[in-house]
Design a protein that fits this description.
Layout: H1 4-8, H2 13-21, H3 28-36, H4 40-54, E1 59-63, E2 65-69, H5 97-109, E3 114-118, H6 127-140, E4 144-147, H7 150-159, H8 164-174, H9 189-195, H10 202-214, E5 219-225, H11 231-248, E6 251-258, H12 273-286, E7 292-293, H13 297-308, E8 315-318, H14 325-328, H15 337-346, E9 350-353
Parallel strand pairs: 1-8, 1-9, 2-3, 3-4, 5-6, 6-7
């Protein structure tokens, strides 16, 4: 909606938020009005109220885990990525079993309960490699494996000439527990064709999640925004996630995060805190069937992440013992477990460790919540 005439026909912010707080589902036109509004504080206050209804106990959760990139070799060539390496480059790698085991051992010793296992679209590794890797991890460690985003699974299916359902079934039997929502970027074909033309389509991303949900697996969903998309693209993304969730109820959480431009082909300036907080708040209002909204401290830093807890977020995600992909694109934020707990308490909430299913757990090392 670019013209002043169209803007005049958008419903008022007050009426929209009143309707949502009274239990009405946020429509796409109403969401457009919120995105075009400069009153992000009022939008945030409404999102905070919806968050309270989802989580009345006042907990803010986090998970202790490590992002392990088993390879950086990728043939996708996404213009927003600064992490991938082409086959044959001097710094391209595939982790050995010894390196993988050392990373997981360190994670467990630090109280970690899961690993996020992701890599690039490697042109040569077949499905057996990934199944063997999963079996190795489960044989050596008692740890939850949250791994292989939809683009990876679609790539495995193509490379092995197998249906996606068979790929997911074999990975699940080998030890894959849940699937992360990475690779979603923006779920519109126009944007994907511009920023990641060699990656799976929006339809394929959603199909992977549908198949996983139908198989009884839980997943997350993400949105990387503030690059080549318009507000209407963000709304379509949210609508497609909500529509699938209506059908399967398989998404545990939604994680919106801002594009990091440093060292990427797209370039530009990163989005600021206001744009991030407004988008996160609208996500909380729109996704009335997704129970958890995660703040992205790794792209926004601890102060904005703390504010996000008053804009609809109820989870701070991972302590990220290790993270490589976003860091390669210029993000330099770090947060210790003690700092994470402190900012949660300072925001007026109770910090609680969780597992990948958002069950509250005690820290196995400290015995405290």
């Amino acid at each position: 909606m670019d013209s002043a005439r169209e803007m005049r026909h958008l419903p008022s912010i007050t009426d929209i938020l009143r309707s949502v707080l009274e239990g009405q589902r946020l429509g796409e036109n109403a969401a457009a009005a919120l995105f075009h509004s400069s009153d992000f504080l009022t939008i945030g206050a409404a999102a905070a109220e919806i968050r309270k209804r989802f989580h009345p106990a006042g907990h803010v959760t986090y998970v202790i885990d490590r992002n392990i990139n088993y390879t950086n070799i990728c043939v996708s060539g996404c213009t927003f990525c600064a992490f991938y390496r082409s086959p044959g480059m001097s710094d391209a790698y595939v982790l050995s079993r010894r390196e993988l085991a050392q990373k997981i051992k360190e994670t467990v010793e630090l109280g970690g309960t899961q690993i996020l296992l992701q890599g690039g679209l490697h042109p040569d590794l077949r499905l057996q490699f990934y199944c063997d890797m999963l079996r190795f991890i489960k044989r050596e460690f008692k740890i939850h494996i949250h791994g292989f985003s939809p683009p990876e699974i679609v790539h495995f299916a193509r490379l092995n000439a197998m249906p996606v359902s068979d790929v997911i079934s074999r990975l699940h039997r080998a030890g894959l527990d849940t699937i992360p929502g990475g690779g979603a970027e923006i779920l519109t074909e126009r944007v994907r064709c511009e920023i990641s033309p060699n990656k799976c389509s929006a339809r394929e991303w959603l199909d992977v999640m549908r198949v996983a949900h139908d198989a009884g697996m839980r997943t997350t969903a993400t949105m990387m925004f503030a690059h080549k998309e318009a507000y209407e693209d963000r709304i379509e993304h949210l609508a497609r996630v909500r529509e699938l969730q209506d059908s399967t109820h398989g998404f545990t959480a939604f994680i919106p995060w801002t594009f990091q431009p440093l060292n990427t082909q797209i370039g530009g300036m990163p989005a600021g805190g206001v744009e991030y907080l407004k988008t996160l708040a609208i996500s909380r209002l729109f996704l009335d069937n997704v129970p958890n909204i995660q703040a992205s401290w790794v792209t926004q830093g601890s102060k904005i992440a703390q504010l996000a807890l008053r804009f609809g977020a109820n989870d701070l995600g991972s302590t990220m013992i290790e993270e490589n992909v976003v860091r390669a694109a210029g993000a330099r934020f770090r947060m210790s477990l003690s700092e994470m707990r402190d900012i949660i308490e300072d925001a007026g909430f109770v910090p609680r460790q969780r597992d990948c299913y958002y069950n509250l757990i005690e820290n196995p090392r400290t015995g405290r919540p």
